[in-house]
From TrEMBL:
This is ATP-dependent 6-phosphofructokinase. Substrate binds at T244, I245, D246, M289, G290, R291, E345, Y401, M402, I403, R404. Pathway: Carbohydrate degradation; glycolysis; D-glyceraldehyde 3-phosphate and glycerone phosphate from D-glucose: step 3/4. Its cofactor is Mg(2+). Keywords: Allosteric enzyme, ATP-binding, Cytoplasm, Glycolysis, Kinase, Magnesium, Metal-binding, Nucleotide-binding, Transferase.
Amino acid sequence: MSIISKKYSLGDIKLITENNKVKNPIMGIPAASEPKVATGDHGYVLEDVPHFTDYIPNLPTYPNPLQDNPAYAVVKQYFVDTDDTVAQQIVVHVDSPRGTHFRRAGPRQKVYFKSDDVHACIVTCGGLCPGLNTVIREIVGSLHDMYGVTRIEGIEGGYRGFYSRNTIQLTPKVTNGIHKRGGTIIGTSRGGYDNQKIVNSIEDRGINQVYIIGGDGTQKGAAAIYEEVRRRGLKIAVVGIPKTIDNDIPIIDKSFGFDTAVEEAQRAINAAHVEAESNENCIGLVKLMGRDSGFIAMYATLASRDVDCCLIPESPFYLEGPGGLFEYIERRIKENGHMVIVVAEGAGQDLVAESRTAGGKDASGNKVLDDIGLWLSQKIKGHFKKKTDMELNLKYIDPTYMIRAVPSNASDNIYCTLLAQSAVHGAMSGYTGFTVGPVHGRECYLPFYRITEKQNKVVITDRMWARMLSSTNQPSFLNTKDIIESNIDEAPPTQLLDDQVADKTVVTKETTVC
Ligand SMILES: Nc1ncnc2c1ncn2[C@@H]1O[C@H](COP(=O)(O)OP(=O)(O)OP(=O)(O)O)[C@@H](O)[C@H]1O
Ligand SMILES: O=P(O)(O)OC[C@H]1O[C@](O)(CO)[C@@H](O)[C@@H]1O
Ligand SMILES: [Mg+2]
């Protein structure tokens, strides 16, 4: 089987199931819901993605048409070696096991589809994000220009579009230039997920490659679509492309659109700073997106250097008393005459809860948050009116939707291009039930469960948060107990950190890391 490196004998590499039962990779095919994990010498672990050959026997293969493409023919070793994998951890110690690896993305020598037989579709789900149109454009371009595929459809309006809307024909002509526009030309939505209706629609339309662009909720839905497709024994590649402006998807370096969002947030922070500087005793308060993760707020703050306080969901804070937010604001205004505060929308929700107005869930089941920006504005104004003789000026700027409605910037456009090309190469090569993304700058195929099992969060015991604190000079609002109870116990995330801790678990050849 292709998951087994040819360099190892079967005795050296074992396919492991979730229950730690070792299966002979030739005799036993893991059930769909079981992770496909192989181990090798020195603690090498491959968390692989499914392939058609796992559940459909005797499939024909074809030479990859890219070998005749003049643009790629000159590139030496253009095709990815089937044994290439990418390490999850790159900071290691001399005695570290080799650790977890993911399959490297890219074109393979053999493909599992004839170009004329491919019938692809693309769907975008969840909130908007800069770069959605670029990914759509580049999937269409990659399928058409690299593999000669001509039947590509856009599913309108998210998951529910599979069973309730007509499709849009996507061609290079239709998608040309869309990367310069924000939003998604095929529309998006929350809710409306019906697994059976979606798979029925895919099957009825004769679609055999499904590209699903969306966040954590969308990827959970994509995983379930893959399971159903596999249960029905269909040769349909189900491919996820992770999208989240909040950068809360684990494993991958960062998500597309995040850079653009941080850049766009600078405009709001600059405006807040101009207002604050020009008016007496003035606070410029900016609310940015980030339901559960404060990456946009943290990176926008670090980039700007004009921010005096950044509040995120991961770092609890309090208003009154010594070491609290009000005390810090009073000091800062006395010293400087003005200040800028950036608050992520999910910050301080425990405080707002006392006077909750929102509540409930959206169509996808996400918690509807109270407006922390408005709440904080009122609290700060109220405090200064009551407790000080200072006339306080507060300018509240809420650019939330503006930072995600813009087109993607240059670096995100390139990022989206690599994602789309990797996704198409993966599907053409027979991989399915996977999502794609960069791990330490290398595009990888990742099993769905690895990116949906938890959310990526800012680690407040990490050096990046310390850099942020030292740039604003704000108090940490934490005591030792808070720090101990914070995410310190969790495995170190991979995103945007420069001090990853090497996995020191001693892993022997027979040990599983699932
Ligand atoms: N656990 C789940 N299983 C199947 N489908 C889901 C699940 N969670 C969400 N979905 C569906 O996925 C789609 C998008 O979900 P959601 O609105 O939560 O956005 P998302 O993909 O998480 O993106 P983001 O939150 O970054 O905007 C919706 O159609 C929703 O019904
Ligand atoms: O108002 P909508 O469209 O549901 O989107 C808001 C949510 O989308 C996100 O940007 C995630 O996509 C969150 O940060 C935010 O809470
Ligand atoms: Mg989500």
